[in-house]
Amino acid sequence: MSDPFENVDAASPQMIDIIASALETRAEDTDMLPVIDAYLDAIAVGDGGHIVDIGSGTGGITRRIADRFPKALVTGLEPSTALTEKAKELAGDRSNLTFRLGDGGALDVDSDTIDVAILHTVLSHVQSPEPLVSEAVRILRPGGSLVICDADFSKAKMGVVPGDPLGSCADAFVAGAVTDPWVAGKLKPLVNTARLETRHFSVLNRVVTSGMGSMVWVRMSTARMVADGVIGQPLADALEAEYLRRAEAGTLYCVLPFVTLIATKQTS
Fold it and tell me: Which 3 state secondary structure label does DSSP give 127?
């Protein structure tokens, strides 16, 4: 199965709606915010600086970046027309924030002009991460920072007992909606060949025990299986209901490690 995040506009309208909703939910999820805030705390941008969020989706995280750095220019670049339009709708009146279409492998941005480039959960959804990292390095000014934050999907878990049907949903999500579940372990070698000096590397676990933060695993995996005729809609509805039951009962347990790497573009 192809990763729908790799070419969102090619997905069905139902899948696009699921993706857009999931991106907004994740950006506001209290279990995810410590991961985002940790790397925002680790970067510094002066007044008039420029931050580019590559693969900005619906802009949930980009809006948070703009609010954290109100005196910097923040640009969200996203290859999906549907998600870019949604991001523009949700941008509000933030004067320092803009969204536009942009291919991470061929950015319409001048070289050596950007203070911080961010790739948040992007590289796990592409076949070849090298062109995106190379483009990010190209647009960074000497001394600028590249922030890569991505999930270690190889360790995504939602089951609480062997054979747990919700655990199967997590496995099916990774199999059908993640291009490279192992990319987190490849980040250091990736940046070492790109004129970058790693100055920060950390892992934080996102643990979801309530709320809708991991419902996307259920909705995307079951929607695919229903469309493929593997299961019927009643089972899909039952799995979603079970997620909600566990969230209400306090028995939900979803774990996904997030790796953050921050590297600096060398000055010579």
Answer: coil
